[in-house]
Amino acid sequence: MAEHAAALEAGVVAEDRIAVATQWQLIWWRFRKHKLAVGGTIVLICFYLVALFADFFAYVDPTESEAQRSLMAPQPIHWIDEGAFRPYVYALKGTRDPRTFKRVYVPDTSTKIPVTFFGHGEPYQLLGFIPTDRHLIAVEGAKPTESLFLLGTDTHGRDLWSRLMYATRTSMTIGLVSVALSLVLGVVLGGISGYFGGAIDTLIQRVIEILRSIPTIPLWMGLAAALPADWSVVQVYFAITIIISLIGWTELARVVRGRFISLKQEDFVMAAELVGCSKSRIIFRHMVPSFISHIIAATTLAIPAIIISETALSFLGLGLRPPAISWGVLLQDAQNIQALVISPWLLFPSIAVIVAVLAFNFMGDGIRDAADPYL
Amino acid sequence: MVAYIVRRLLLAVMTVWAISVLSFMIIHLPPGDYVTSYIASMSASGSAVSEGEAQALREQLGLDKPITVQYAKWMGLILQGNFGMAMEWGRPVSDVIGDRLTLTMVISVAAIVFTWGIALPIGIYSAVYPYSFLDYAFTFIGFIGLAIPGFLLALVVMYVGFAYFGANVGGLFSPDFIEAPWSMAKIWDLTKHLPIPAIVLGVAGTAQLIRIMRSNLLDELRKPYVMTARARGLSEYRVVMRYPVRVALNPFISTIGYLLPYVVSGSIIVSLVLSLPTVGPLLLKALIAQDMFLAGTIILLLGVMTVIGTFISDLLLMWVDPRIRFGRE
Amino acid sequence: MRPTLISSMQNDTRPLLSVRNLRTSFFQDEGTTKAVDGASFDVSPGKTLGIVGESGCGKSVTAQSILRIVDRPGRIVAGEIVLTRADGSQTDLAKLDPNGREMRSIRGGEIGLVFQEPMTSFSPVHTIGAQLIEAVLLHNNVSKKEARERGIEALRSVGIPKPERRIDEYSFELSGGLRQRAMIAVALSCDPRLLIADEPTTALDVTTQAQILDLLRKLQQERGMAIMLITHNLGVVAEMADDVVVMYLGRVVEQGNVDDIFHDPKHPYTKALLQSIPSIDSVPKLKLPTISGSIPHPFNRPQGCPFHPRCISAIAGRCDAEDPLLRDVGNGRKASCFLYQ
């Protein structure tokens, strides 16, 4: 079997195109073959486009509430009008429920409101500096707050679709910011641990082992609950990212350390030492490039856990707090089972969580396999 | 062997110490101290605390001393089994936590048993028949299992139970048994209610363990000792089950070390959704009410229980793996 | 041990094992690797056959094919592996179900295997005894106690000191040499008539190598078993083998008596191999000749004779077009080269 593998490798190298390819080209070629990973990457690009242009994808102000229109069911867009492609929604008319006397809205099938794409809506600043009022979806001749409910509304009558767009911005970026912090901690501590070894390695390893053997959620809950109640949304956002990354760096540190230790024994590192390269040159010119792909893979695989943590904390009411909007905050409405049974669309944000986590896992797996098929 | 036990024990003690410091920090993080929040909670319930009483309480608890002394005092009290008062409940913390901690551990262990029971056969199958249809199917289901956070799965289970079966699938006991003292009948009732929380909690871990078992076993199947076992004339089933599976089982057993904290973590949130009488809902209530003494104690005890569980699994691992017993790893 | 059998075998002129046109391929997404591509040779009873070749030439896969333990996605595509059984009947192993009862009783019972890596040839979590006794129980109708006695005896016969203690130890408690002895003990515990030794000494240091080779020779004399010795080390072959098979890229390129092969090699590949080892007569400080080029990958094996791109005597227009067959070149020797056809 070993002979066989060796022979196979020899053949692969024999192919000219592969012989001259750079490391990144090789990784890209292998990654491309991984269909799920490519699919996951495309999904993630879509998610981050939504995060970047949330105000364009949303059609109303996510905080605008109208108690009377609470818990409205999703209103579908009708695509074909009298045999032609002319999307429209029905207007809504308010009536009283004959039994509960509550005011409810029902579609008025006699009035059709045309739906346009890239139409005009509420003004906003695209990317924070381009003033515009174009939205992905708009309605003609009516206010979207009164007519368009793609995913229904929450208990306060706020439009779930628009809220979901803004929540995507918060939750997807919290993953990135948090993982960036974890990465810095993980690479620095893991690198020190792996490169220098000895007592400092032992110390860092013990700290990692201790952190990994503590149930994290209660700890996070405790730390998050200790945040002052009067902090602003932005302060809480960064405090939560810090809390999550303080515990999340251990896995990255483990990967970095493992790579450093195995690379230290490689002949090319020994060779670099023998020709008198400086320590920093050995680390940054010789060692880092050969494991950077592993770091990228581990980082990608760390993001979904962070997204889940944020969602869980916010779901409990200990993470981001309203008026911040994140997937977890949206899901708080789904905590009440009775409400959920009546208005199951409150669970829509969970689909976003699952799809995003799945996509990150697929992409991360693809990168890991492409970076090193033997890992 | 002795060195291994000592090392593990030392690590466990250090972990407990670290958890105690973190818990203590959590208790002291919010502005004010125990007495200010005690006064606040007392006045909220209508009974005032005089300045003198507060001062006496502060002295009794040593709150006027430096933080390290306070920590030592707190630890001293805890070692005597005195966990302080749960303000909101007006009862000692140990009273309030009571059975809940045990039930948390029961659910966590049940989830781990479920995880192993499912992951082991599927992992073996996937490794012995890699790239088969079922292997792909399990991998795909596993990916989805990994992507669904426990509390979301719990929500879905509750929703399905309510919407389609009209039943509340939450809780750990039938209504008749909630207040009943412990008896065989109550334990049996608990057993009947365990599967749903155990499955909800175990799904993500199961998906992970299947992947671990599959890749470990794939590695082991390529090793020469498998071929020599085959060359001895053993049947394929015995070759696989007796050798590579047995070897791949060791890292599998050691997964309990991080599976347990993970499951205990998850049980806190899942308990809230499924309204299980564990420490989860209690912890959340305590945190929201800023009853940090109760919260800190819960976090400390959860941590300690987890460390004990992990230590037991370490001993188990030593028992099954001769390489560790002989200090070869 | 089995005096009647040995004498009957010695009178028998049929080969103990006869491999004919064996082809074993690995089917993968990237393509099909022909690891063994039409190998033929015989193993005579009580004799040692050396199989030599560079790594990747299909030696190990040949051994695995004989035992029918080729790993997936590998499979025997064609050929015969005829084993002459103890009762004189003949069985084609290539036609047996690899997991069937008959094949399993032959594996370990009639053909033993010693592997190249004593480090990893034992399970790390089972004692030597567990693996040894298991083999004895599998092929003999004996009680557990008796099997243990036989296991201890087997360990003693391969020169392991204090076998009654060693039997309960784990493989990582033994040194490399002892481990390889234990491996031989397991392979021999059921008195096989053929022992396949796949690079048995490669992972050992030189003095231990010599001890293990001595041991194999001694055991062969005592038991009259045949040995199929797979190695890339020509020195080992010269010392041990009666007959030699030279393999290149899954094919047998030359076959003959050990003295003939070493003193009068026919095939250019064999000649090149022999020139590349230092000898006591070679001129000091002179560079040893090497074979130019490297083994081509089995995916794109060259047209015609697989060796022609590296061959110094290649005949243009012939060697790169036609496939030479393994033919008799006189004196009971065979070679697959157009120089002799």
| Largest interface pair | A-B, 43 and 52 residues
Gap from first CA to last CA of chain C: 46 Å
Structural class computed from helices and strand pairing of chain C:
alpha/beta
What is the H/E order of chain B? Answer: HHHHEEHHHHHHHHHHHH
- Strand segment count of chain B: 2
Mean pLDDT of chain C: 84
Question: How much is the radius of gyration of chain B in Å?
Answer: 24 Å
Query: Oligomerization state of this entry?
Result: heterotrimer
What is the C-alpha radius of gyration of chain C, as a whole number of Å?
21 Å
Any idea what the shape of chain C is? Answer: globular
First-to-last CA distance of chain B: 11 Å
Largest sheet of chain C: 8 strands, mixed
Topology:
The complex is a heterotrimer of chains A (375), B (329) and C (341).
Chain A: H1 2-14, H2 16-19, H3 23-33, H4 35-52, H5 54-57, E1 78-81, E2 84-96, E3 103-126, E4 130-139, H6 144-147, H7 160-196, H8 198-212, H9 216-225, H10 233-264, H11 267-274, H12 279-315, H13 327-332, H14 337-342, H15 348-371
Antiparallel strand pairs in A: 1-2, 2-3, 3-4
Helix pairs in contact in A: 3-15, 4-7, 4-15, 7-8, 7-10, 7-12, 8-10, 9-10, 10-12, 11-12, 12-15
Chain B: H1 2-28, H2 34-44, H3 51-61, H4 67-79, E1 85-86, E2 91-92, H5 93-128, H6 133-147, H7 150-165, H8 184-193, H9 195-221, H10 224-231, H11 236-242, H12 244-254, H13 256-273, H14 279-288, H15 292-320, H16 322-325
Helix pairs in contact in B: 1-15, 5-6, 5-9, 5-13, 5-15, 6-9, 7-9, 7-13, 9-12, 9-13, 13-14, 13-15, 14-15
Chain C: H1 3-11, E1 17-28, E2 31-43, E3 48-52, H2 59-67, E4 74-84, E5 90-92, H3 101-106, E6 111-114, H4 128-139, H5 144-157, H6 163-166, H7 176-188, E7 194-198, H8 206-223, E8 226-231, H9 234-240, E9 243-248, E10 251-257, H10 258-263, H11 268-275, E11 327-328, E12 334-335
Parallel strand pairs in C: 3-8, 3-9, 6-7, 7-8
Antiparallel strand pairs in C: 1-2, 1-4, 4-5, 9-10, 10-12, 11-12
